[in-house]
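Need residues for this backbone.
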């Protein structure tokens, strides 16, 4: 084992100071490393490993997008079956009937990242009876408004 002897206290202090600066630099680098910071803030820290988890996550994403675009949230996790294919979860399909005319297709990685969400409203497959009922209500409302205007005159 090699021992060092210092001729004075100044050399010893300089060596300790260099060691302190070196260790402090390493600690600061590790504390502010973007990879470390990103891992702590990642929304993807939880893995989606079951069909049930994937279906819940996909239905939530589809409803958020549908609510934003159409003001309606028709999807439940049971609406479609979640399948894990080629390292991605797939849920839903774009189909003409859908749920009250709405259909969705959602894909995402096992950690929930790289989301692809598509929500569609199909007007060509609306229930005709419902459409006719809405049309009649609109006509009745127009007639009532006309009566109110005439009574005011």
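Answer:
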């Amino acid at each position: 084992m090699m021992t060092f002897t210092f001729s004075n206290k100044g050399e010893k202090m300089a060596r300790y100071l260099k060691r302190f600066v070196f260790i402090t630099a390493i600690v600061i680098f590790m504390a502010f490393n973007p990879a470390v910071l990103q891992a702590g803030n990642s929304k993807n820290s939880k893995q989606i490993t079951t069909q049930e988890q994937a279906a819940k996550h996909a239905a939530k994403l589809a409803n958020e997008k549908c609510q934003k675009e159409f003001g309606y949230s028709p999807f439940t996790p049971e609406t479609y079956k979640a399948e894990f294919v080629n390292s991605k979860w797939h849920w839903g399909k774009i189909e003409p009937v859908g749920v009250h005319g709405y259909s969705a297709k959602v894909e995402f990685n096992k950690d929930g990242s790289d989301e692809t969400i598509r929500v569609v409203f199909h007007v060509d497959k609306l229930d005709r009876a419902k459409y006719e009922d809405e049309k009649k209500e609109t006509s009745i409302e127009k007639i009532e408004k006309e009566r109110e205007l005439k009574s005011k005159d």
